Structures are given as structure tokens and as C-alpha cells.
Inverse folding.
């Protein structure tokens, strides 16, 4: 056992077990610390949102919270900060927890190939934009069960904050659900498929949608998990997540769709088809064109 640089690729879901410092209980410690840091950071985010809101007091701000988090106010700077910033806060929370526990490098959450590969991420953005753009157009024209009113809801500041923070929100969900959760389950169970299914269940239950919406999110969680497993990293999943959320928020903010949480059957089916096509295309490109090449993995690994 030694601190070396190697050129091997490791299976992603069980990757934590490759590190000398790994112990079965350490992911639990990382999770607990991440939770503590997360709520600490959230307090700061909410204080910033409070001062930005111009409310006369905390009580008045809390009275407006639903307006900012799930109403027309979500398209303002305050609403975008609450919606995006409250989730993006998971990234520094996890990073701090990993730094303290030191069971493995933070880069190991990104991939089992030696960290986050930006070239793969940008290629993933292109593929996701093409696939999701085509299906969004079809859905909007033929199946839109929640049409918008055609009015622009964004404020200028709200649009800027949303555009800046949304990628961090998407990355945070991937690092927590496909990184921390799926890799923890994989390191315990050592059966990737089970880890993928379990994290998708938790991912779906974390979204307050109706039954059709939850089913669509569950399949998306499966898709993101399979892609992370097959590509040995989070880059493509983050890219898909970013494109999906940009389409959702921009279409709502510009009045193309209503964006309610009560998804219909047709929207669920379209979402599932998009996920299946995306997984198939990503796996094909990965195997055909070898987008993902090994890079040195730094850290204390079992040899």
C-alpha cells in the first residue's frame, strides 16, 4: 500500500474501497458532517436572501418565503438565490466534510479516473442539448399539459443569478446522490445495480411532485446513476442535469410552460424516453469514441 500515481480505471460505485483510509463507517461521518456544514451554510444563504429582499423583518421574510421559493418571486434574484443557492450549498459542505474525515480525496467523488474531466463535461453538454432540445420541442408543440402564459417572469437580476447558480445546483445534486450516496452504498453492498436503484429512490423521494413527477424523477435518477457507473464519473450526469434544469427554468421564466409540480402522464413518458435515449447515446459514444481516458489517480490506494 503506497501513495502512487497509476493509470488504471476503477469501478465507480465501489471506488471508495480502493483507498487505504477507507472504513465502512467513515462515509457515515462524512454524511453527518456534510449535514452540519450544509445547514450552517444555508443560514448564511438565507441571511443574504433576507437582506436582498428588503423585508421589514424576519417574520415578514418568512411570510414571503413561499412566494420566493415556489411562486412568481422565484424568478427574482432573491428567489433564484433561495432555489439555487440552498442546493448548491451542498458542494462546499461535502468538500469540507471530506477534507476533515480524509477517508479519500474529494476528487474521488467526481470520478474513478482521477477527478473531474472538463472536456467530457462540455461534450456532454452538447449531446444533452441536442437530445433534450429535440424532445422539449416535440413536447411543447404536441403534448404540453402545462402551457405557460407567454409572459416573461424573470427580473434582470433574477435571470443573472439563476444562470450563474444553476450549474452549481445541478452539480451539488450529482455529488450528493450519485457521488456520496451511490458510492457509499456501492462500497457497502458491492453490487452497483442495487446502489443505483437505491440512490434513485432517495433522489425521487426528495422531490415534492405528484406520482407522475416522482416516477419521472426516479427514472432520471436511474439514468444519472447508470451513466456515472458506465462512464466512471459525474461529468456527463452533471451536464445532462444542467441542460435539463436550464430548459425547465428558462421555459417557465419566459412563459413557455407553466412549470407546475403536478406533472401529467405525457410529460412523464416524454421524460422517460429522453432518459432512455440519453443513456443509450452516451454509452454508445463512450464505447465508440473513447471519450473517457484514464488519468493519474493521486492518493493512498490499495496495491
Amino acid at each position: 500500500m503506497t501513495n502512487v500515481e497509476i493509470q488504471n480505471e476503477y469501478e465507480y460505485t465501489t471506488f471508495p474501497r480502493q483507498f487505504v483510509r477507507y472504513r465502512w463507517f467513515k462515509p457515515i461521518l462524512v454524511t453527518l458532517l456534510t449535514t452540519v456544514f450544509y445547514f450552517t451554510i444555508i443560514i448564511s444563504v438565507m441571511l443574504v436572501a433576507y437582506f436582498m429582499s428588503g423585508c421589514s423583518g424576519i417574520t415578514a421574510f418568512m411570510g414571503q418565503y413561499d412566494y420566493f421559493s415556489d411562486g412568481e418571486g422565484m424568478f427574482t434574484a432573491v428567489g433564484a438565490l433561495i432555489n439555487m443557492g440552498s442546493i448548491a450549498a451542498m458542494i462546499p459542505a461535502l468538500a469540507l466534510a471530506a477534507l476533515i474525515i480524509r477517508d479519500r480525496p474529494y476528487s474521488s467523488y467526481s470520478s474513478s479516473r482521477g477527478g473531474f474531466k472538463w472536456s467530457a463535461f462540455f461534450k456532454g453538454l452538447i449531446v444533452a442539448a441536442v437530445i433534450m432540445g429535440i424532445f422539449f420541442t416535440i413536447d411543447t408543440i404536441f403534448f404540453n399539459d402545462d402551457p405557460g402564459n407567454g409572459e416573461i417572469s424573470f427580473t434582470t437580476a433574477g435571470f443573472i443569478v439563476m444562470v450563474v447558480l444553476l450549474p452549481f445546483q445541478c452539480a451539488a445534486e450529482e455529488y450528493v446522490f450519485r457521488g456520496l450516496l451511490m458510492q457509499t452504498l456501492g462500497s457497502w453492498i458491492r453490487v452497483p445495480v442495487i446502489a443505483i436503484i437505491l440512490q434513485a429512490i432517495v433522489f425521487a423521494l426528495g422531490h415534492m411532485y405528484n406520482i407522475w413527477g416522482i416516477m419521472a424523477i426516479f427514472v432520471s435518477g436511474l439514468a444519472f446513476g447508470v451513466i456515472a457507473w458506465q462512464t466512471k464519473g459525474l461529468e456527463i450526469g452533471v451536464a445532462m442535469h444542467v441542460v435539463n434544469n436550464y430548459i425547465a427554468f428558462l421555459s417557465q421564466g419566459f412563459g413557455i410552460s407553466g412549470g407546475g409540480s403536478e406533472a401529467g402522464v405525457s410529460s412523464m413518458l416524454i421524460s422517460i424516453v429522453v432518459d432512455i435515449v440519453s443513456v443509450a447515446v452516451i454509452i454508445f459514444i463512450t464505447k465508440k469514441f473513447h471519450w473517457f481516458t484514464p488519468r493519474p489517480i493521486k492518493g493512498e490506494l490499495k496495491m
Observations:
- The chain has twelve helices and two strands.
- Strands lie at 2-6, 297-301.
